[in-house]
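I'd like us to work through together how a protein chain folds, taking it slowly. To get us started, please write out a protein record for me. Label the sequence line and the structure token line clearly, so we can match residues to local backbone shapes. Once you have written the record down, we can walk along the chain together.
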Amino acid sequence: MIRNENDFSLKLSRQDFNKIVDNHPEFFDELIQSPDITYRNFDSDFSSEAGQDQYYNLYAYFLAQKNGVEKNARHRKKLIRIYSAINSIFAYLANGGTFFGHQQSRLVADAEYAVYLHSESDNSQSKDEYDISKQKKLYIQSLRQMIDDEVKIDKESTEQEKTERIQKLNEFVNEADLLITNLFYLRCAQHFQYHYY
């Protein structure tokens, strides 16, 4: 049984598990590439949207073993929450859609890859300690401004609905604001947002 922090679970027989291990050496490479690159290069067994979701979750599972499941649990959980908040902002602005549901399932792979890059970085400790308050404030303000601008041009909602929508969207921003506590989390949030949305 393969499970992760994002409520994904996959039950595999020993034979199916061994087949995945045998057919996907990329999960065990010394040099890890991003889940998007890895999927593009090795997706033959996982070609549907649901299959891609499975692939990203398997990627996250195997990379978590390499990164250390317990050792990096705090980083992993926090990144998943930050990425979920960002995905929720854009899903809510777009009034939903299948992209955001699949992205919610796949973001665990991006979080695990960020954990891997963080643990591989030589200077992560020193950068984590400097003051990011001004950078973070600008990032959070940009999210709030984008929300205001997007909701303002919505021609189908009443003023009351717009007000409620802005309030709900700002709850997601508030969550991201609380979770972004150092440069690592700030850069990860920015990269995730600008890469996918």
About this structure: The mean pLDDT is 92. The radius of gyration is 18 Å.
